[in-house]
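Hi Y.,

Following your request, here is the sequence exactly as I used it, all 343 residues.
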Amino acid sequence: MRTERNLTRLDRVFARLDREPERPAHIDVPKMSRHRVVLFTATLAFYLAIVWAVVITSWLVRLDWQVMFFRPYQQWSGIHWFVDYYVVLGQRGPTAVMVAAWLGWRSWRQHTLRPMLTLGASLLLLNITVGAAKLGMGRLGPHYATVIGSNEMGLGGDIFPSGHTANAVVTWGILAYLASTPRARRWLSAASAVTSLGVGMSTVYLGTHWLSDVLLGWAAGLLILLALPWCEPFIARAETWLFDLRDRWRARRGGTVPVPAPVPVAPVALRPRTASAEDAPAPEREPVTSARSPRAPIHLAPGPHTTRSERTPVTPVGSRRPQHPERQPRGGAAQPARPLTGG
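Below is the corresponding structure, written out as tokens. Let me know if you'd prefer a different format.
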């Protein structure tokens, strides 16, 4: 009886990974809907309001100084070691490598370059927008402040908005943007929001950023995520161009020569062929009969009775069986009859 082994959960996972991947067709590319436009407009207004509040040295700047003088890293010094490690989740290098590894695996499994191209487009927008804002406003950080109560703008700094916070919003939020199902998108959105919130608060705790830097960093990262649907047509064109380039490179590497177009040839009139001696039909060959005599029928058991000599095999050479010279086979010459004596 044949028994089959029950597949474990790990076996089912590996069996699913071994299947031939297919490009998903059920995933809808996000579009710039009315709801997204409203969120983008509100976030942009919040961004401009934070910038204006810092430029005019409003109550937000006074709050920045109060938090700085509170020195959270001294008030809660026991968690300093944890915050030093947690803030790495907002650094550009480590987070980009981790997220790119995951999205690269997804691109390979799904036969599409959209995850990697979307990540590249978001990081490019992040470098352009946040980098330009940092250099344009030139605000100094809390550790380098010169005048108490001032906004420290235009002094050659590069901390407004917070790059750690904006990078955390974009890098972890791109996973939610590229999620396959609505449920996964909700869970990943919540996880990325908590992660970016913690990274922003970590920079305030360590004293490397003002509180207003973190607020502007959240708004800057969210603006990039909300603007990604506008980049989808360019991402699709780039993916098509890269696939065409790959196909041409494979064809050139494989040595396939393109088939030239057929050359039109003018029709030629054909004349009927005259009969000749070569076209005469060949004489038919006579069937060749076999010269071998028909084989005698083979009788299976039961068959005709044979003598002992015919049925006894010949003793092989080198056999240890002794010879019997007086013994005569039964099928040999007839023995003389014994005389009968009367008794």
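Residues 297-303, 305-312 have pLDDT under 50 and may be disordered.

Thanks again,
Q.
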